[in-house]
Amino acid sequence: LVGFPLEKTLSPAGPVSRALCRVDHRGRLQRLEEWTRLERSASGIGRRLDGGGWQPAPDGALVSMNCWAF
Questions:
Q1: Is the pLDDT of residue 17 over 90?
Q2: Parallel/antiparallel/unpaired status of strands 3-5 and 44-48
Q3: What is the domain range of residue 29?
Q4: What's the structural domain count of the chain?
Q5: Is residue 20 domain-resident?
Q6: Would 69 be classed as within a structural domain?
Q7: How many Cα atoms occupy the beta-carbon half-sphere of 3 within 13 Å?
Q8: Are 30 and 20 in contact (CB under 8 A)?
Q9: Using CA atoms, how far apart are residues 53 and 47, in angstroms rounded to an integer?
Q10: Going edge to edge, which strands form the sheet with 3-5?
Q11: Residue 67: predicted pLDDT
Q12: Within-domain flag for 35
């Protein structure tokens, strides 16, 4: 799996979906979480939730851009 910095994968054209990589203290992948409606706003990078809420993305988040190798 190749991880990309979330902030470098956002689109100026609107919200995107990304697989957020959750890693342990050694940087090993633990799980992937599908995040939809990711965007940059005045309060930072995060996603819009159903009902209008906002969830900030973790600082330094890495995301998958569908490049897998086994």
A1: yes
A2: unpaired
A3: 3-64
A4: 1
A5: yes
A6: no
A7: 15
A8: no
A9: 8
A10: 3-5, 62-64, 16-23, 29-41, 44-48, 54-56
A11: 63
A12: yes
